[in-house]
TrEMBL record, chain A:
<dbReference type="Pfam" id="PF13516">
    <property type="entry name" value="LRR_6"/>
</dbReference>
<dbReference type="InterPro" id="IPR041567">
    <property type="entry name" value="COI1_F-box"/>
</dbReference>
<dbReference type="Pfam" id="PF18791">
    <property type="entry name" value="Transp_inhibit"/>
</dbReference>
<protein>
    <recommendedName>
        <fullName>F-box domain-containing protein</fullName>
    </recommendedName>
</protein>
<dbReference type="GO" id="GO:0019005">
    <property type="term" value="C:SCF ubiquitin ligase complex"/>
</dbReference>
<dbReference type="GO" id="GO:0009734">
    <property type="term" value="P:auxin-activated signaling pathway"/>
</dbReference>
<dbReference type="GO" id="GO:0048443">
    <property type="term" value="P:stamen development"/>
</dbReference>
<dbReference type="GO" id="GO:0010152">
    <property type="term" value="P:pollen maturation"/>
</dbReference>
<feature type="domain" description="F-box">
    <location>
        <begin position="4"/>
        <end position="45"/>
    </location>
</feature>
<keyword id="KW-0833">Ubl conjugation pathway</keyword>
<dbReference type="InterPro" id="IPR041101">
    <property type="entry name" value="Transp_inhibit"/>
</dbReference>
<dbReference type="GO" id="GO:0005634">
    <property type="term" value="C:nucleus"/>
</dbReference>
<comment type="pathway">
    <text>Protein modification; protein ubiquitination.</text>
</comment>
<dbReference type="GO" id="GO:0031146">
    <property type="term" value="P:SCF-dependent proteasomal ubiquitin-dependent protein catabolic process"/>
</dbReference>
<keyword id="KW-0217">Developmental protein</keyword>
<dbReference type="InterPro" id="IPR001611">
    <property type="entry name" value="Leu-rich_rpt"/>
</dbReference>
<dbReference type="Pfam" id="PF18511">
    <property type="entry name" value="F-box_5"/>
</dbReference>
Length: 575, 241
């Protein structure tokens, strides 16, 4: 390779797109490092505080696409206060100053403001793609700036964000000359939608492939939109309250039949329990179905729909489908790769809509299954052992038994053996979430067998520090470890400080770590940011003479090359 | 009136504004509400995740925490959670309305019908209204169209927020709208003019057309509502009343 001119090497590198591979390439030698960095177009930053924009731009001056993640995962469950951080503004400011030709920005769990969106829309003439996932801090006014100023906008994809809906006219801010949209997803907006502006926009977007509507788009509008966009591949239905005899419904039926490219279906944010038969004609093409927000639809209708979906690869559904419904899935969806079953009853009222039987049925019927997220009320070791035998190909296995500390409901034993079987059989397991009654034993299994494990979520589990130590010592590829309400303390935390150099982050809340332990860790590892989030009266921690033994409520630590961040709010201590 | 986003607990976009943020912080660590007589900063925000008491008792063999009482559990994204809770609230409200309509010509039924006629379809200005409860990190939204009376609304809110304060006490929250001292909490709302009022004083129909946001706050806070309200206004840049 050394005998080739740089341009040839660069051309070869163009075929290497995965970030990990490109990182590996850059380590080979100085000349490859140099060629790689100038040709790198996409960068993924898993923790926005691990690096700063200046250093990023210093290394990759030709950046076109940036992905940033802010808050830790447990922020999704309100364990991280809103003001913790993850502000995108400094990034956009730096990128704007550098006159970069930014085309794509993808943000997850970051704080985005209208000011940021306005700046973004004005600073990059070639900007094409904005994807915001679980972000907050902005309003529809910010969306209006994006619509108005981004001349070549291709993707506007808003997933599960907290957006203040000013019920303005952001959709009409797309100029008439804007015809380039490929993705438009505003399902998470709660307010009224200007239907006329929406229809006009869809009608003039011949490349539109993905359209996800919010709950304010009624059925008759949906019918008209589908007539304008028969080329649609990915559809999110807004409101689906239909009278099967109405004209709108008939129009919808006719329009759906013409959408022969439709592969992904989601939404039904407000749905009457009436059947989904209008969609039956296109079901045989569907590869992805997300009905996890459609709480109104009865299990029987879900089953009728799914019976037609033989090509389904991804299914997100509510537990109202029941074990019976899952059996139907198992016998129909032989191509299924990913399944998520969400709970409908959060109050733990003993509703056993789906049980271990449903999980076993799926594992037996779907040979290609590799990712699962399963909420249920009960589980047994026997079931998990069977699942492990049936499905040794799991990459992601997340089981959430709704009641914390719940044992095997038949034997009353902990679920150590069940999860142990999973990690032993699934040699490619990268992500695991545990639940139910678990002792240190399960962690011994994880440390021994889960060699590829990168992300582990632990809640209400374990007995002693040994549990956490098994994981830290055994899982060489661990990147993200998040623990809540488990009896792990300073001994485990401090046993191998250098381990955290190989990890992105560690989260521990309501565990046994003390302020003294955290301080010692921070001293030993200056390349770590050790953050204590303390929402209680701060003064209590300092005045208390036993501060060394004061238990820390929330600890978040992460490796960084740029030291302590300067934007932390007062209740976050960085040691 | 200040931009409403600044008054809302926990919504500061810029870190240096958190010092000026008005908060109705109430510590729930010991299950007791404390008096606040000063402007609170982010430091005073109560712990939302503190349930050590529940934990240690569970490890000592006492009954484990129920799913609904544990903060941040089950691990469902807050967006999805809000949607699910609102769906349940709507179901409850609809069921209630049906029950009432089957009853014998009560005044409530007429009012409900009246309201539902007025709000049928997508009436501008009504719809989902944010609800925050002091000490609870997660905000909720209620669909005002799905409710027919104060009782109705209070019931929905009770169900939404029951067990969300993270205390181990199983004391059921009393009807929220009454400031009669029997409940720890009161329900207040922000109206179209930006004023914070106690819920329940005006006819229901008038209420739903003027409510912008709801807040459940501790009784001790609400006692000072009028004077505090004045205090808030004096500190704002815009014209005082």
């Amino acid at each position: 390779m050394n005998y080739f001119p740089d341009e040839v090497i660069e051309h070869v590198f163009d075929f290497v797109t995965s970030q990990r591979d490109r990182n590996a390439i850059s380590l080979v030698c100085k000349s490859w490092y140099k060629i790689e960095r100038y040709s790198r177009q996409r960068v993924f930053i898993g923790n926005c505080y691990a690096i700063n924009p200046e250093r990023l731009l210093g290394r990759f001056p030709c950046l076109r696409s940036l992905t940033l993640k802010g808050k830790p995962h447990f922020a999704d469950f309100n364990l991280v206060p809103h003001e913790w951080g993850g502000f995108v503004q400094p990034w956009i400011e730096a990128l704007a100053r550098s006159r970069l030709g930014l085309e794509e920005l993808r943000l997850k769990r970051m704080v985005v403001t209208d000011v940021s969106l306005e700046l973004l829309s004005r600073s990059f003439p070639n900007f094409k793609s904005l994807v915001l996932v679980s972000c907050e801090g902005f309003t529809t006014d910010g969306l209006a700036s994006i619509a108005a100023n981004c001349r070549h906008l291709r993707d506007l994809d808003l997933q599960e964000n907290e957006i203040d809906d000013h019920r303005g006219q952001w959709l009409s801010c797309f100029p008439d000359t804007c015809t380039t949209l490929v993705t438009l997803n505003f399902a998470c907006l709660e307010g009224e939608t200007n239907l006329v502006a929406l229809e006009r926009l869809v009608a003039r977007s011949p490349n539109l492939k993905s359209l996800k509507l919010n709950r304010a788009v009624p059925l008759d509008a949906l019918a008209r939109l589908m007539v304008c966009a028969p080329q649609i591949v990915d559809l999110g239905v807004g409101s689906y309250e239909n009278d099967p005899d109405s004209e709108s419904y008939l129009k919808l039926q006719a329009a759906i039949k013409k959408c022969t490219s439709l592969k992904r279906l989601s939404g039904f944010l407000e749905a009457s329990p009436h059947c989904l038969s209008a969609f039956h004609p296109i079901c045989h093409n569907l590869t992805s179905l997300n009905l996890s927000y459609a709480a109104e639809i009865h299990g029987s209708h879900l089953i009728k729909l799914i019976q037609h979906c033989k090509k389904l690869q991804r299914l997100w559904i509510l537990d109202s489908i029941g074990d019976k419904g899952l059996a139907v899935v198992a016998s129909t969806c032989k191509e299924l790769q990913e399944l998520r079953v969400f709970p409908t009853d959060l109050l733990g009222g003993g509703n056993t809509a789906v049980t271990e039987d449903g999980l076993v049925a799926i594992s037996a019927g779907c040979p290609k299954l590799h990712s699962i997220l399963y909420f249920c009320q009960q589980m047994t070791n026997a079931a998990l052992i069977t699942v492990a035998k049936n499905c040794p190909n799991f990459i992601r296995f997340r089981l959430c038994i709704l009641e914390p500390n719940k044992p095997d409901h038949v034997t009353s034993q902990p679920l150590d053996e069940g999860f142990g079987a999973i990690v032993q059989a699934c040699k490619n397991l990268r992500r695991l979430s545990l639940s139910g009654l678990l002792t240190d034993q399960v962690f011994q299994y994880i440390g021994m067998y889960a060699t590829q494990l990168e992300m582990l979520s632990i809640a209400f589990a374990g007995d002693t520090d040994k549990g956490m130590l098994y994981v830290l010592n055994g899982c060489k590829k661990m990147r993200k470890l998040e623990i809540r309400d488990s009896p792990f303390g300073d001994t485990a935390l401090l046993a191998d400080v250098n381990k955290y150099q190989t990890m992105r982050s560690l989260w521990m809340s309501s565990c046994e770590v003390t302020l003294g332990g955290c301080k010692r860790l921070a001293q030993k590892a200056p390349w770590l940011n050790v953050e204590i989030i303390n929402e209680n009266d701060n003064n209590r921690m300092e005045e208390n003479g036993h501060e060394g033994r004061q238990k820390v409520d929330k600890l978040y630590l992460y490796r960084t090359v740029v030291g302590t961040r300067t934007d932390a709010p007062p209740f976050v201590w960085i040691l | 009136m200040r931009d409403r986003s600044e008054l809302e607990v926990g919504k500061s976009n810029l870190p240096d504004e958190s010092e000026l943020e008005l908060g109705l912080g109430l510590s729930l660590g010991g299950g007791a509400w404390r008096e606040r007589g000063r402007i609170l900063t982010a430091k005073d925000f109560p712990s939302v995740g503190s349930k050590r008491a529940a934990d240690s008792s569970s490890r000592q063999g006492a009954s484990p925490p129920r799913s609904s009482q544990v903060v941040g559990w089950p691990p469902i994204g807050s967006h999805r959670m809000n949607s699910l809770v609102n769906n349940q609230a709507t179901k409850v409200a609809k069921a209630d309305k049906e029950e009432e309509e089957e009853g014998e010509g009560k005044k409530k039924v007429d009012e409900a019908k009246d309201v539902s006629m007025k709000v049928n379809g997508k009436v501008q200005g009504l719809g989902f209204v944010k609800v925050n409860m002091d000490g609870v990190g997660i905000g909720r939204k209620v669909d005002m169209r799905a409710h027919s009376s104060y009782e109705n609304l209070a019931q929905t809110l009770e169900e939404m927020f029951f067990g969300m304060t993270g205390t181990t006490s199983r004391e059921k929250v009393k009807p929220l709208r009454l400031l009669d001292g029997s409940s720890e909490f009161v329900l207040t709302y922000e109206d179209k003019e930006g004023d914070w009022m106690l819920v329940g004083d005006v006819p229901w129909r008038m209420f739903i057309t003027s409510v912008k946001r709801l807040r459940i706050m501790g009784t001790s806070e609400a006692n000072g509502l009028a004077p505090r309200h004045q205090e808030q206004k004096e500190k704002q840049r815009n014209n005082p009343v």
